[in-house]
Predict the structure of Dihydrofolate reductase family protein.
Amino acid sequence: MRTLKIIEHVSLDGVIQNSVDGDGFPSTDWTGPYRTPAGAELMLSAHGERFDLLLGRRTYDIFAGFWPTVSGVPMADRLNAAKKYVVTHRPEDLGWGPAEGVGPDLVEGVRAIKAQEGPGLVVTGSSTLTSALLEHGLADEVVLVVYPVLVGTGKRLFAAGTPGQTLEFAGTTPTPSGVLLSTYRVAGPLKSA
């Protein structure tokens, strides 16, 4: 069975949005000042040598408009080579491939993909997808790339109403610029005393 890893770049106040996507977001590229070669190596390691992507349609479209234009960068090479599984009602126009739609039922579609042979799945961006995957027990690991900034407004890491979850700490690695890469394993529903 394939594993599903959520990797999110997040501000200290929980914002994951990093670009304008039609809603007038004012703080584009707030991660830029913190990028370092050491951070890039950590991100490559977090993704793994081979992986497939699971993306919401909006994130897919944003990525498809950028990553195919980048060459000679290891992360771009890996993202462009990855198979993209896209949660969409328009699977017929997935030009950044290899790509295919997940199907009409997110939960059953992702379960079927996880049951296939292949590399691990990585989810990044796709804020509404992240919450649904956790709610239905489909995520195995969460990697938070936490930046030392408060963005103030924008799409949040977890949507309001996301059910409580217990995550087991697996480790943290700092970068020279103050970004923390923290890994957690999904352990199940929130436990209370």
